[in-house]
Amino acid sequence: MKCKYIEIIGVSGSGKSYTENEVRNSIKSEIKIYNRREIILKFYNKILNLGFKEKLILIYFNLINILKSNKKINQLSLKESKNLQKKTQFNKKIKSNITNYFRIRYFEICKKFYILFCIKNVEFKKEVNKLFKNLDKLDKKLVQFWFYELCAAYYIFDKIKPNNCVFLNDEGFVTKSNLFIHTKNGYKRSTINNYLRTIPYPDLCIHLKKREKEIYKVHEQRKKFNIEVYLDKNFLKKIYKNDKYIVKLLKNKTHLIELINDHEITKKIIKIIT
Questions:
Q1: What is the per-residue pLDDT across 4-43, written as a single tens digit (0 to 9) for each?
Q2: Torsion of CA 181, 184, 186, 189, to 10 degrees
Q3: Cβ burial, residue 177 (10 Å; 0-12/13-18/19+)
Q4: What superfamily does domain 4-273 belong to in CATH?
Q5: Which sign does the torsion angle of CA 116, 119, 124, 128 carry?
Q6: Domain residue spans in the chain?
Q7: What are the backbone dihedrals phi and psi of residue 98, each rounded to the nearest 5 degrees, phi first?
């Protein structure tokens, strides 16, 4: 099997991150599945020779990644949600200057790979820079980090092309089109189109579908327990609109599979991959 880049797409709250984690943790096969950060941490040294401090930073983030690998956000019980809230508040209290230092350095490492990616993706860089300039409420540094890490992982994976390996991404280039809704200009198809013309498309897109009522319930729960990825109904309607539009476009761009997110979703995706 050759390496494959697979994106899981869907409306925020449809279970993309949860499903990605479940697939990676449940698969019993010779095929190795990695997410964004795992790609960077495992294969960075095949592209760049980093210094001792930078290697130490990546070791630190590898440990953080292992600790977070089993986190389940979208299907939390009431009790679990309360516990998550307490842990989140506790973690905020114990953030130290050391942790912030490591985070900033990791940001800079990802930026190095982002620059390499943009050398051959000049038009992509132009569209993303427009996004950075026109962001409304989202933090610019945070959005930059999302793109730097994504492009770093894709650049490394595309360069080394590891055998028998899948890069499974729940927040890939296609999903990032939703960020253009967070701009001062609001939702515009022309802006989305300009961005989508510049991205590298995955070998396969798996579109997760979930009933609107269930999506709203997930976001109400996030709001109640102060989880950062909460979106209100009006904004979710815009996301839904973009999601339907993107699915139509993808049918002419790459292989697309649409799946209802039910209790069999992990088995279905593992079957597709293997």
A1: 999 999 998 899 999 999 999 899 888 999 999 999 989 9
A2: -80
A3: buried
A4: P-loop containing nucleotide triphosphate hydrolases (3.40.50.300)
A5: positive
A6: 4-273
A7: -65, -45
